[in-house]
Design goal:
The complex is a heterodimer of chains A (250) and B (267).
Chain A lengths: L1 H4 L13 H10 L5 E5 L3 E7 L15 E3 L4 E7 L1 H22 L5 H14 L11 E8 L5 E6 L5 E3 L2 E4 L3 H11 L8 H13 L9 E7 L5 E2 L2 H26 L1
Antiparallel strand pairs in A: 1-2, 1-8, 2-9, 3-4, 4-5, 5-6, 6-7, 9-10
Chain B lengths: L1 E2 L5 E2 L9 H9 L3 H14 L2 E3 L11 H4 L4 E6 L1 H11 L5 E8 L19 E7 L15 E9 L16 E6 L20 H12 L4 E8 L6 H5 L8 H4 L5 H15 L8
Parallel strand pairs in B: 4-7, 7-9
Antiparallel strand pairs in B: 1-2, 3-5, 5-6, 8-9
Helix pairs in contact in B: 4-8
The chains are: A alpha+beta (250), B alpha/beta (267).
Protein name (chain B): Proteasome assembly chaperone 1
Family (chain B): Belongs to the PSMG1 family.
Organism (chain B): Odobenus rosmarus divergens (Pacific walrus)
């Protein structure tokens, strides 16, 4: 049934599916996991780093990109599509700033990206963008924001979310562990992001990349050492929690 | 005679059966050359067993030389990785033979060199415990199959977003009395290719066999997919064979890093 209605993007199936858009969402699942967390004074983006070939320059394989000084995004899916979307978003951020003399709000740039993606689901001869994006940042009012977009062009605000491979597992972990205590301060929010990624990342801390934005501060990318320190702390806390548990049962 | 869309004239099949039939039959009769080509192809397509180290062929049927009580087949890279790290890691396994297939779609005719892109099968037997590939009659043999399939092939009336992939499903023959380690494969899902052929054979010959099918959304070698096979380790057929699970996980991780194919399309 599906094969007769999935050739063109502009054709609905009899039961209302746009199969090309749904297939684009499958392409997103082929990208490695990205997780975003909105804390009280911080927003955190963590991604699973893909292992880089020996001769490849690591700096050119980045999943977390700044769109402006106060907004950044992580994506999952087709690398080339992401590059195009990011370029357009960056130009829009500067164009807006020059026109209106104010930096973009996170919601504005998310809406711009989502509208761009939606256009490609309604055009003849074009295919949808095969990426989902997590966009984080602080507005002028100082409130932290996290938005997620997907290939269909929808966008929603989230407290915490994950995209890419094994996103479901990470989202379930976040649903269980995203509590007010967990985001009480900045370091707790960072630890929550790393713990969520460790659920699905294959070789621990060295395959994780992390970026944070604090209120009125620019994007900060964590170095490998800093991530290792966080991972060691998390493992220590885990061990202590397990010791306490075993003491309670004996 | 009929004209097709492109204007070529095609002879339409005639159901009445006219005199033209005799002429057609003459054209279809085989010449000696046709027979020779067919024989040559049949020889090429023969499945032969050989030893990889010595490159000598095995004349005797493998099952006659090594009758076994437990026959475990892993199909596909994730299933093979699971078997290599968890089962073959415990105990010493000796390679007893290898079979390589050729048909008209293969690009090479080299019969002894194996490259990962080609279809082949390697047979191992456990040195320390000959009853696995041991001296029991075929009657007591039990077959276990492991394979993977993409989750988009899984048909269900439930919502797709409620599926927690990767997940395991089982399909067994009538003679397999043991309860399987996971839920059975529901209708209308079907099994394809080699696992289906093996299960059908076992059902016909009343051999107890079980297939563990892992539905996953990552078809290439992936740690989470391989670990989805772990419940099978508690089954009776594999219980005695698996000893060191933490070490197996380490071996699996190493296998994954060495076999990772670099692709920059998806990030």
């Amino acid at each position: 049934m599906a094969s007769r209605y999935d050739r063109a993007i502009t054709v609905f199936s009899p039961d209302g599916h746009l199969f090309q858009v749904e297939y684009a969402q499958e392409a997103v699942k082929k990208g490695s996991t990205a997780v975003g967390i909105r804390g009280t004074d911080i927003v955190v983006l963590g991604v699973e780093k893909k292992s880089v070939a020996k001769l490849q320059d690591e700096r050119t394989v980045r999943k977390i990109c700044a769109l402006d000084d106060h907004v950044c995004m992580a994506f999952a899916g087709l690398t080339a599509d992401a590059r195009v979307v990011i370029n357009r978003a960056r130009v829009e951020c500067q164009s807006y700033k020059l026109t209106v003399e104010d930096p973009v709000t996170v919601e504005y740039i998310t809406r711009f990206i989502a509208t761009l993606k939606q256009k490609y689901t309604q055009s003849n001869g074009r295919r949808p963008f095969g990426i989902s994006a997590l966009i984080v940042g602080f507005d002028d009012d100082g409130i932290p924001r996290l938005y997620q977009t997907d290939p269909s062009g929808t966008y929603h605000a989230w407290k915490a979310n994950a995209i890419g491979r094994s996103a479901k597992t990470v989202r379930e972990f976040l649903e269980k562990n995203y509590t007010d205590d967990a985001i009480a301060n900045d370091s707790e929010a960072i630890k929550l992001a790393i713990r969520a990624l460790l659920e699905v990342v294959q070789s621990g801390g060295k395959n994780i990349e992390l970026a944070i934005i604090r209120r009125n501060q620019p994007l900060k990318m964590f170095s490998a050492r800093e991530i290792e320190l966080q991972v060691t702390e998390i493992e220590k806390e885990k061990e202590e929690a397990e010791k306490k548990k075993s003491k309670k049962t004996t | 005679m009929a004209a097709t869309f492109f204007g070529e004239v095609v002879k339409a099949p005639c159901r009445a059966g006219t005199e033209d039939q005799e002429e057609e039959e003459e054209g279809r009769r085989e010449t000696a050359e046709d027979r020779e080509v067919r024989r040559h192809l049949a020889r090429k397509r023969e499945v032969r067993l050989f030893r990889r180290q010595t490159k000598t062929s095995l004349e005797v049927s493998l099952l006659e030389k090594y009758p076994c009580s437990k026959f475990i087949i892993a199909i596909g890279n994730n299933a093979v990785a699971f078997l290599s790290s968890f089962v073959m890691n415990s105990g010493v396994w000796e390679e007893v033979g290898c079979a390589k297939l050729w048909n008209e779609w293969c690009r090479t005719t080299d019969k002894t060199h194996l490259s990962p892109a080609e279809a082949f099968c390697v047979f191992y037997h456990l040195k320390s415990s000959p009853s696995v590939f041991g001296s029991c009659a075929r009657k007591n043999m039990q077959v276990t199959l492991l394979t993977c399939r993409h989750v988009t092939d899984y048909k269900t009336s439930e919502s797709i977003s409620s599926l927690h992939s990767p997940f395991l499903k089982a399909l067994k023959t009538q003679n397999f009395k043991e309860p399987p380690c996971c839920s059975l494969l529901e209708q209308p899902n079907i099994v394809h290719d080699l696992p289906a052929a093996v299960l059908s054979y076992c059902q016909v010959w009343k051999i107890p066999a079980v297939l563990y099918l892992c539905y996953t959304d990552v078809m290439k070698l992936d740690l989470i997919t391989v670990e989805a096979f772990k419940p099978i380790l508690s089954s009776r057929s594999l219980k005695g064979l698996v000893k060191n699970i933490p070490q197996s996980t380490e071996i699996l991780k190493k296998l994954l890093t060495t076999n990772e194919i670099q692709s920059n399309i998806y990030t």
